[in-house]
Amino acid sequence: MLRAVADWWDAVELWITQLPFPMQVALAILVVLPLCWGTAAGVDRLVDLAAAQLGRDRTNGPSAR
Question: Where are the transmembrane segments (predicted)?
Answer without folding.
Answer: 23-43
